[in-house]
């Protein structure tokens, strides 16, 4: 049993540690670099969007409006704290109304 746990720990650790040592030495084609740079944004979108639509049960439009405010502020390069606070404030204001 302990051997299985150690094996699972090694298998989990290798993909997390290996890139730190190997990726800096590899040179990727330009299209691969662009694709790899887009992954964090795609993952962030996949994690955030479900939360936006379920911020208040039965009222997805409130989350979508707050998300729109955050997108607009981010587009105009507002500070991250300002963007987050504006989205939270939008949800708060729309919840009161």
Order of helices and strands: HHHH
What is the first-to-last residue Cα distance? 57 Å
- Tell me the count of domains: 2
Runs in which pLDDT lies below 50 for 5 or more consecutive residues are: none
Please describe the topology of this protein:
Layout: H1 2-22, H2 30-53, H3 60-75, H4 80-96
Helix pairs in contact: 3-4
General description of the model:
Helix 3 runs antiparallel to helix 4. With 97 residues, this protein is an all-alpha fold. It starts with a helix and ends with a helix. Helix content is 80%, strand content 0%. The model has no long low-confidence stretch (mean pLDDT 90).
Tags for this model:
flat; 97 residues; mainly alpha
Summarize the structure.
The protein is mainly alpha-helical and 97 residues long. It contains 4 helices and no strands.
